[in-house]
Amino acid sequence: MKTFLLKIVFLFLLVSPSLHSEAVGIKTLDAEACRVLVQAGEILSMNDLMRLVSTLSEGKIIDTHLLQKELLYIYEMEIAGSDGMVSMLYVDARNGDVVDPVVLDSQD
């Protein structure tokens, strides 16, 4: 019984971030959508993003997602620091400005 409950909790935790994202109108865009937006000059390329991260920290990008909320495009990046610590960084995909992730949670 305990194992069954743990499996239920685990499955809920796996699904809950996507449910939360959909509730606030955030979409995770796939690689093809990202390519189209980069070619159209709407957002920064991955090369631009890597140069930007190198100016902000000594860390390396280990994972990136392009999020869209209405007309706002945000790169969500997982950065591995030189000390081994992993942190999240949110950047406006249009201009490279660092963004507070609270912007994504607002209901505006």
Automatic annotation (TrEMBL):
Superkingdom per UniProt = Bacteria
Q: Which residues form the signal peptide?
A: 1-21
User: Which keywords does this chain's UniProt record carry?
Assistant: Signal
Any idea what this protein is called?
A: Peptidase propeptide and YPEB domain-containing protein
